[in-house]
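Can you give me the bound-state structure? Components:
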Amino acid sequence: MNRIKKKNTIIRTALKLFSDKGLHTTKISEIAKSLHISVGGIYEYFPSKQSLARASIQFVTQKLASELRYINQSDISCREKLCQFVEVYFHFIAHDPEMIAYFFRVYLSNREFFCEDKDCGFSLAEEFITELKILIEDGVNRGEFRRQNFYVSFSLISGILGAITFLHGEEVLEEDLNLYRKEIVDTIYAAMAA
Amino acid sequence: MNRIKKKNTIIRTALKLFSDKGLHTTKISEIAKSLHISVGGIYEYFPSKQSLARASIQFVTQKLASELRYINQSDISCREKLCQFVEVYFHFIAHDPEMIAYFFRVYLSNREFFCEDKDCGFSLAEEFITELKILIEDGVNRGEFRRQNFYVSFSLISGILGAITFLHGEEVLEEDLNLYRKEIVDTIYAAMAA
Amino acid sequence: MNRIKKKNTIIRTALKLFSDKGLHTTKISEIAKSLHISVGGIYEYFPSKQSLARASIQFVTQKLASELRYINQSDISCREKLCQFVEVYFHFIAHDPEMIAYFFRVYLSNREFFCEDKDCGFSLAEEFITELKILIEDGVNRGEFRRQNFYVSFSLISGILGAITFLHGEEVLEEDLNLYRKEIVDTIYAAMAA
Amino acid sequence: MNRIKKKNTIIRTALKLFSDKGLHTTKISEIAKSLHISVGGIYEYFPSKQSLARASIQFVTQKLASELRYINQSDISCREKLCQFVEVYFHFIAHDPEMIAYFFRVYLSNREFFCEDKDCGFSLAEEFITELKILIEDGVNRGEFRRQNFYVSFSLISGILGAITFLHGEEVLEEDLNLYRKEIVDTIYAAMAA
DNA sequence: CATGAATGAGTGTTCATTCAT
DNA sequence: GATGAATGAACACTCATTCAT
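Here's the bound-state model for the whole set.
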C-alpha cells in the first residue's frame, strides 16, 4: 500500500473514532489499535494528533466539495441541483455517517483544536463553502431563487441538514432517514424560491 | 451572596469559558481564576467538572425555554410568535452569546461528557424542545403553517439559527447581526407557511 | 461540659473512626460530623490531625497502663496477674474494641505519622510497656517465670494478644472471643513458667 | 530485562518504600524516582497504586509460603520444622526486612486499601496461612504438639514473630537479632509441646 | 467559643509524543 | 519503515487547615 493510501486509511479510522467518541476522548493508541498498527506507525504519517484531525476535516470537505462541484457543473436547474445535493448528502449520512458527523460534531465544535497560528477560520472547509456559494448565486442569477443574503441561504441549507443529521445520530427520528429527504428539499426550496 | 446566587455566578463563568475555549480545553483552575476564587471553591458548589457542565446546560435551556414559554402563551399569531422567538434568540446572541454557543458548540457536540448512567438523551434540553414543539404544532393546527413532519420544521428553525450563530461567532458575517434577523424570519416563514 | 471532657469525647470518636476506616482515610470533617460539631470545633481542642492522633494513642495506653498498674499492685501470684491482665484485655476488646484496634492497627502501623521531631520511639506507649515490664520481672524474681529475655516475653504476650485481636477484628474466629481466653492464658503461661 | 523481571523490580522498590514510609505517605513519584524511571513507567506495569500494593503483598506471601511449604515437605520432626521456619523467618528479617514489615505493618494495617469488591479477606495471604495450618496440624497429629485451638497456636507463632520484628524495626532490641532466635523457638515450643 | 466556606498545595493518573531497537 | 516502552507535563479532585463572622 502506498503512502497516500495508508494516510487515507488512517484518516478513515480516525474520522470514525473521533466522531463516535469525541476528539479529546479518542486516544492515539486507540486509533492505532483499531488499525492494528503501532502508535509510532501513526506518527510516521502524521506529526501530531492535531495534524491528523486537520487532515481528516480536509478529507471530508474535499469529498463533499467534489460531489457538489460535479453537481454544479451539470446542465440542470438549480432546484434539481439542490435536490441532487441533498440526495448526495443523505447518501453520505447513510453510508459514511462519520464523515458528516466529523464535520458537524468534531470540526465545528472544536475549532480551537484545529487552529494553526492565525489560521482558525473556515479555511479547512473553504472548498465546500465555495461550491455552495456557487450553487446559491447561480440560482439567484438564473432567477430561480429569490435574492437574499448569502449567509442566510447558507445557514438555511447547512443548518437544516446539520440539524436533521444530529437528530438522526441521536436516534430521535422515527422513520427511515430517506423519508425526510423529499420534505427537506421542499422546505429548502420553499424558503429560497423566487 | 447566597448559595444559589454563587452557583449561578460560577455557572455564568463556566459557560463563558467552556464556550470560548471548549469543554476539554477549559481547566477548572481557569474557571476558578476567572472568578477570583480557589479551585476548591468550585468544588464547594459542584462535585465535579461534569456536574458543572450539566448544571450549565440546564441553566441555558431553562432560560431559553422560559422565554419561549412566555411567547407561546401570548395571544398572537404564530407568525408573530416565530418573529418574537427569533427576536429573543437574537437578543441572547447579542447579550449572552455564550449561552447560545454553549448549547450548540458545547452541549450538542460533547454529549458523551454530559451522560449520566442511561440519561444521555436530550433530557437536559427537553424543556426547550417541548416549547418549540408547541409553537410548531400550534401553527399547524391554526392553519398558519403547512402540515409537515415535526422534525423537519424543528431542524429548519434550530438549524438556521444555529448556523447563523456559528457564522456570527466566527466573525464571518459582514453586517450587524440584527440586519439578518428579518430575512431569517421571512425565510423560516416562507418554508413553513401554509 | 468542661474542656477535658470535651477533649475526651473528641478522642473517643476519633479513636473509633481512625480504627474503623484507617488514619489516612478518616477526614477531620467526618470526625466533626460524627460529633455533630463543626470542623473548626475540632481545631479548638487539637491544633492538628496529628496532635489528635497522638492524644488518642496516649488516651489508650494510659487506660491500659492504669489497669495493668492496678493489677501489678495487688497481692496475688504472677500467674494470677497474667490471668487478670488477659481478662482485662479481653474486656477491652469486647467493650472498647476501637481502643485496642487503635493501638495495633493505627499506632503501630503508622509510626511516621506520630513522629514529632526525634520523638518517634515508643514514647507514646511507654507507660504501658513499663507496667508489662514490671509484671514480667516480678514473675522472674519470684521464681514463677523462667528467666528469659524481656523482649521475648514481651513479644510473646503482646504478640499473641495482638494476633488474636486481629483475627477477631477480621471476624475469622469461629467461637465467642471469651472461649479463647483461658487457652491463651495457658499458652502464655506454658511458655513462661519456670 | 523482561516484563516479569521489571515488574518484580518495581515490586521490590515499592515494598521497601511502603514499609519504610507507610502506604499513604509513599507517593508514586517517589517510587519512580527511586527506580530512576518516570511516573508513567510504573503505570506501564501496574494500572494503579492499589494494584501495585496488592501485587506486592502477593509477592511477599508467596515467598514466605514457598519457604514454609519446602520445610513442611521435609522429613523431620515438627519441632525441627518450627525451628527451621523461625530460622527462615529471621533470615528474611535480616536480609529482606521490608518483606516482613510489609506484611505486618502495611498489609495487615491497611486492609481497606487492599480491598477489591468483596475480596477483602485474608485471601492475599492465604497461601501462607495454609502452610502454617499444615505445620500446626501435623504437629498435633504426630503427638508432638498438644491439641489446642488452631487460632491460638496461629496467634502465638505469628504474634511473637510479628512483635519481635516490630521491636527490631524500632531498633529497640539491644542485641543482634539472631541471639533472640533460639529463645523464641524455645518459647513457642514450650507453649505448644504436648 | 463555634462555625463552615474558602484555600491551595499536593496526589494519583492520563496520554501525546519520542526514540532506541 | 515499524515498534511500543518510556517519558513527564498536565489535570481533576482532595482535604488539612484557616479565619471572618
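A couple of observations. Residues 29, 32, 37-41, 44 of chain A lie near DNA strand F (CB under 10 Å from a C1'). Residues 49-73 of chain A form the longest helix (25 residues).
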